[in-house]
Specification:
The complex is a heterotrimer. In chain A, about 85% of the residues lie in helices and about 0% in strands. Chain A is mostly helical. Chain A has one domain. Chain A starts with a helix and ends with a helix. Chain B is α/β, with parallel strands linked by helices. Chain B has two domains: about 1-80 and about 150-165 and about 180-210, 3-Layer(aba) Sandwich (Rossmann fold), CATH 3.40.50; about 90-150. Chain B has helices spanning about 45-50, 75-80, 95-105, 110-120, 135-150, 165-180; strands at about 5-15, 20-30, 35, 60-65, 65-70, 80-85, 155-160, 185-190, 200-205. By secondary structure, chain C is mainly α. Chain C is about 80% helix and about 0% strand. In chain C, helix 2 (about 10-45) runs antiparallel to helix 7 (about 200-230), helix 3 packs antiparallel against helix 4 and helix 4 (about 90-120) packs antiparallel against helix 7. The chains are: A mainly alpha, B alpha/beta, C mainly alpha. Chains in contact: A-B, A-C, B-C. The interface of A and B includes residues 43, 116 and 118 of A.
Chain lengths: ~260, ~210, ~240
């Protein structure tokens, strides 16, 4: 008698365990599917960008051009340029990143890709994350690689360059993430450039402040861990929240 | 294929001042096809977009297999394919690459499957060309190849025969007939009638 | 049901009538408090021993600055409620808030600059408080710009609501980073409120002004809300009936 009871509870327990196992298996399968979809979305954007190289080069040329304006407008003396170099670099990077944002969702909204993403049965948040990651790889990383050249031309010493690259790399992650929200919100507005900057720039100020500070410290040869960590904290916060907001904004734009 | 029923109860949709959907109701069993007709601006596209959950109706609900689709929109989306006015294709990718990414985001896809679908719509010879060089009818065919690859229970099609020649229209009819034979359901917004190959279909007329 | 009041707030005619009924209950106390606060602050309170009569602008500046933040929070909360529970009146409230908040922010900036002249000898100082206020003004302008840019009211409502919520997450971060930035570049700000040494005869009028401004905002919001509801429901049948009376 007692053995029957125990075997019955045993079977209940195993069934519960099996159900739990099945549930965690479906969660795992869903995550795998979401990651696979996100990978494809990322690859698609990269492939498209390399088919349209002019869009890729324009923000970089813009960055170089803005940096060049300052010696012409202020003074060619490296000592004076050095004093304003961190600010110049970051303002130029901010504007260049903003310039590329207009293309982030515009074509996808136009040809119905966003609609298909929203209806794909995959997590739109992950897909937005993938698109933002592509944007960062195509603008943030090239900007970080170009920043040393710009910094040298403004009088930075070679020793400062690793710190500058690190700060632009980390900071541009947040810029792309904040930008993705702004770009998704302004979908469907015809001439959205000015509005996009009005929405995005105030939210990007913390990145500008910490990034410029990190660059300044790097140029003085001082330890720059504190602002760099703050930049990283912003990036982590952005990674967790921005794709959610961008996905919600895309859904609103499709309504 | 699961035998789910699509039930639509009293949908009302407002866009600003305009009452677009005025109490639309219908039931669509598995294996059945519904033609939605009506003049321009009568809300055919809005109805399809409301059905798939892109638009949020002021009143009424959509049930799939007896459950309100708002409860688990993502599960519902895995069961449906929506094809809008414009084929969702990238001008700077080839027809083949487009399908690889578009369908691939939804499910794993083998190269052989892709070939079969492309051959089916007669795209064999031009599937490596960039979509920007294709005609409107060819683009539509690529979209149909995508549809053929999505063997999901519910198809929502907005003007599926636009820009297609007689052979293309027969192709649409054949695809719909196959979907119905599998036990899938189809809702199609059309100006004219669906091609005869699609078989008999219910009709829903929207007033302007 | 205890929730009926909440659902009734979703009904535009009810909200319209309620707003009309409540407005005087906020407007009159606001007028009295502001009049009393101004009398107390500009006439009764003694001049500051350092700043003389110049400090009296605090009676407009501080309440305006306080309102600029409070209106933003009200707007974000209304937007969040409207977004989550799909309550359209929430969108109307948020839309009505934005121009009021922008005006308060602008007033705070102008009075801050005017106060800066006697205090710092310059109309504009990159003081963290003023800088944050300026950024807040841009947040308001962005919100109103997005609203104006989207033609479809429903989309404009929902997109701007999302922006308000995203902005409210960012406001503390922006404020913190601006304070941090400021602490690097200059000595801590000279402007301080709420010093324990502030005389009671100075403090009481200030508190009256704060309360008065808050009530004034609510009254203004109710008036603007009626306008918003009217323009959104212009096709509805209840409007001619209401306007007749």
């Amino acid at each position: 008698m007692s053995s029957r009871v125990s075997s019955a509870t045993g079977s209940v327990a195993t069934r519960a365990a099996a159900e739990q196992g099945a549930a965690s298996a479906t969660v795992a399968a869903e995550t795998a599917a979401a990651l696979r979809a996100a990978r494809l979305a990322l690859l698609r954007d990269l492939q498209l960008a390399f088919r349209k190289r002019s869009q890729l080069v324009q923000p970089l040329a813009f960055f170089a051009l803005v940096t060049m304006l300052f010696p012409l407008a202020v003074s060619p003396e490296l000592s004076r340029l050095r004093a304003i170099a961190p600010g110049v670099l970051w303002v130029a990077a901010l504007l260049a990143s903003l310039l590329a944002l207009e293309f982030l969702f515009r074509d996808d909204a136009h040809d119905g890709t966003l609609e298909q993403y929203a209806l794909s049965g995959q997590s739109l948040t992950w897909l937005m994350f993938a698109k933002t990651a592509a944007h960062w790889l195509l603008t943030g990383v090239p900007l970080a690689l170009m920043a040393p050249l710009a910094a040298l031309s403004l009088g930075a010493s070679p020793a400062a360059l690793p710190g500058i690259v690190a700060s632009v790399t980390v900071g541009s992650v947040t810029l792309s993430l904040i930008g993705s929200i702004g770009a998704a919100l302004t979908l469907g507005i015809k001439r959205s450039g000015a509005l996009l900057s009005l929405l995005t720039l105030p939210l990007s100020l913390p990145v500008l402040i910490f990034g410029a500070r990190a660059t300044e410290l790097a140029m003085h040869g001082a330890p720059l861990a504190a602002p760099l960590e703050l930049l990283a904290a912003l990036a982590v916060l952005g990674v967790t929240l921005a794709p959610l907001a961008a996905a919600a904004a895309v859904r609103i734009s499709l309504e | 294929m699961s035998n789910e029923t699509l039930e639509v109860e009293n949908l009302h949709l407002w866009r600003g001042d305009r009452h677009v959907l005025k109490g639309v109701s219908f039931t669509l069993a598995a294996g059945a096809c519904l033609e939605v007709t009506g003049p321009n601006g009568s809300g055919k596209t809005s109805l399809l977009r409301t059905l798939c959950g892109l638009m949020y109706p002021e009143e009424g609900r959509v049930l799939w297999g007896g459950h309100d689709v708002r409860g688990d929109l993502r599960a519902f989306h895995t069961a449906l394919a929506y094809l809008g006015h414009e084929p969702p294709l990238k001008a700077d990718l080839s027809a083949r690459e487009n399908l690889h990414y578009w369908i691939g985001v939804r499910r794993p896809l083998s190269a052989a499957e892709l070939d079969t679908a492309l051959a089916r719509v007669g795209a064999r010879t031009w599937c490596e060309r960039l979509v920007r060089t294709l005609s409107a009818g060819q683009k539509r065919r690529v979209a149909l190849a995508g549809l053929a690859l999505l063997a999901v229970p519910l198809w929502l099609l907005d003007e599926p025969t636009t820009n297609l020649d007689a052979e293309g229209r027969r192709l649409v009819g054949g695809l719909i007939a196959e979907q119905l034979a599998r036990g899938g359901a189809v809702v199609a917004a059309v100006h004219h009638e669906l091609p005869p190959e699609a078989g008999p279909a219910g009709r829903l007329e929207l007033a302007a | 049901m205890t929730w009926t009041w909440f659902h009734r707030l979703g009904s535009p005619p009810y909200v319209y009538a309620l707003a009309a009924r409540l407005t005087p209950w906020f407007a009159w106390p606001a007028a009295l408090l502001i009049a009393g606060g101004l009398w107390g602050g500009l006439v009764l309170a003694p001049p500051d021993y350092q700043q003389g009569d110049g400090f009296r602008i605090v009676y407009v500046h501080a309440p305006s600055a306080w309102m600029s933040l409070m209106v933003y929070m009200t707007m974000a909360i209304a937007a969040a409620i409207a977004l989550i529970w799909r309550i359209k009146v929430g969108h109307a409230v948020a839309a009505a808030c934005a121009p009021i908040g922008a005006s308060f922010t602008f007033a705070a900036l102008v009075t801050g600059a005017l106060w800066g002249e006697p205090m710092w000898g310059t109309y504009w100082e990159w003081d963290p408080r003023l800088t944050s206020m300026l950024i807040l003004l841009f947040l308001y302008l962005g919100y109103m710009g997005l609203r104006a840019g989207l033609e479809d009211t429903q989309r404009a409502d929902r997109a701007s609501a999302l922006l308000a919520v995203a902005g409210s997450v960012n406001v503390p971060i922006i404020h913190y980073s601006v304070t941090w930035w400021n602490s690097l570049h200059q000595a801590p700000s000279v402007m301080r409120f709420g010093k324990p040494t502030m005389a009671l005869s100075m403090l009481v009028p200030l508190l009256m002004m704060l309360a008065g401004f808050t009530l004034y905002f609510v009254a203004l919001l109710l008036v603007r809300l009626r306008g918003e509801v009217l323009s959104r429901e212009r096709a509805a049948s209840w409007i001619p009936e209401v306007l007749k009376t």
